[in-house]
Amino acid sequence: MKNDAIKISKYLSYVLRHNPQEIGLTLDTEGWADIAALIDGARRTGQDLDETQIRAVVRDNDKQRFSISEDGKRIRAAQGHTTRAVAINYSALIPPAILFHGTATRFIAAIMQEGLKPGQRQHVHLSDNRTTAESVGQRYGVPVILTVDASRMHEQGFKFYQADNGVWLTDHVPQAFLSRDA
């Protein structure tokens, strides 16, 4: 059962973050998709999916990658979109003084030269704790934790946002605001 939930979560991430058009799904500018349309599109392309499964994945996902609208009819990925049609309008917030970013050793040289960039995503993803950052970094190899001086960035006019799942977002983190944990 757990493997099914992981498979469904990966499928939802792919469709809701990166490629909704593959199943004929339309996302609004805030990333919301109609759950019934998602199920229909998935079935047309050979993915057996139902509302109970979707709600269980949203509820039980440890990273809270997805949100269901207040009316219960729509779903969206909390963040991580590569499709430019989605630009969730989060309100700017004052971040914690320090945030963290997990990466792998093979990316450190470029990051320490260029800072953190969103890559294919719309924002740089940051966490408010080392444990989450380490978990993220492990996905890419030997993890390295970077500390972000978010307070100083904010004082200098950089904007921070927080996704539905608690992930902190910003457009770019210049190298001057980064330090590598020992």
From TrEMBL:
PANTHER family: PUTATIVE PHOSPHOTRANSFERASE, TRNA 2'-PHOSPHOTRANSFERASE 1. The gene is kptA. InterPro entries: Ptrans_KptA/Tpt1, RNA_2'-PTrans_C, RNA_2'-PTrans_KptA, RNA_2'-PTrans_N. Its EC number is 2.7.1.-. This is Probable RNA 2'-phosphotransferase. Removes the 2'-phosphate from RNA via an intermediate in which the phosphate is ADP-ribosylated by NAD followed by a presumed transesterification to release the RNA and generate ADP-ribose 1''-2''-cyclic phosphate (APPR>P). May function as an ADP-ribosylase. Pfam families: PTS_2-RNA (PF01885). Signal peptide: none annotated. Keywords: NAD, Transferase. GO terms for molecular function: transferase activity. It comes from the Bacteria. Belongs to the KptA/TPT1 family. The keyword Repressor does not apply.
